[in-house]
Amino acid sequence: MGRTASFERSAVVDAARDVFWRRGYAEAGITELEEATGLTRSSIYNAFGSKRGLFDAVLAAYLDDVVRTRLRPLGGGDPGALEAYVAEMSDAIAADTPRARLGCLLLNAGSSPLASDDAEVRTLVSDYAAEMRAAIRAAVADRRPDLAPDAVDALAAVCASLVVAGLTLARADRDAALATLASIPATLEAWGRGV
User: Fold this and answer.
1) What is the pLDDT of residues 8-28, one digit of tens each?
2) To which CATH superfamily is domain 8-67 assigned?
3) CA angle centred on 20, ends 71 and 175, rounded to 5°
4) What positions does the domain HTH tetR-type occupy (predicted)?
């Protein structure tokens, strides 16, 4: 009979998240993951199957705990939900914490060499982008009920692109990231009004 795992899986995933977020999948070494999680290599492999299995658990938890938590209020009928979403991201980036300087873990994964070689990562990032676009589209429809559906689609595509640009810039240029996100409320207001 095998030994029962004596660690909190979510705590291990959170600790590994910081390593992968900071270093990327390819650069994160198993020794670094052992140190961060407090687990031995064999415990990591027994619990997650591989370094890649741990990375997959990190991405899934990030999607559930961070991304979906922020997207959930969008499209719930609150016309100010998109501005609140943008303000929350802007506040996090402006706080200049170590995590804020790392940008979005999923977007980082999607722009890494891993994504070009791995269909699962490409699919995960693509699905994330589609989920974000759908949530932003619903929020735009709540915010601008005066627009026709095709105009809502176009405005939502622009806003989603600005969110992706802001989150991507956060890693390299915090001020540019904040300026990009700050343009979203004005874009929402001016779209289709000839301003």
Assistant:
1) 889 999 999 999 988 888 888
2) Homeodomain-like (1.10.10.60)
3) 60
4) 6-66
